[in-house]
Amino acid sequence: MRYETDDILRETFTSDLRYLMAVSHIVLANNQVSNRFFEKTYRMPVHAWSALYAVVRFPGLLAKDIPLLFPRPQNSVSRAVSMLRERGWITVETSEEDTRARLLYPTDEGRRVLDGIETQVLKRQEEIFSVLSQEERDQFLELCRKLILGGGLSASEALSPDDS
Questions:
Q1: pTM of the model
Q2: How far apart are alpha carbons 85 and 110 in whole angstroms?
Q3: How far apart are alpha carbons 110 and 115 in whole angstroms?
């Protein structure tokens, strides 16, 4: 039996898992498109651009704080930071308060690269959200903020390994 796309999506988005499936579909579809763009255009993984974004937006950020904005494994963040340093897009300075802390700062070149990336990402954002009215976009963002700040994204009792 061959399933039609509409049937698959209709069934998926009416199933018991519809909310997680909808979020996963949006995120994974966008990641697929974004990954191709960043690999082809900048020869870097998508998590490298997000790390650059974090450093440009929050100069002096610690690498361990990047996952607060972009939840990714720390080893992926570390590789991204190394790549950005090698390309001269960020610098690392030792904190005066804590000599173990390494503060990340964008270079002028890093800012320039991010400006070009943001131009394309804004176009991508418009592609995705153009089907929503401004009111729907605002509501979507408010609901996302509520989920993010609700505390259930980064930890889970339901999906914790069984300790028995």
A1: 0.84
A2: 10
A3: 9
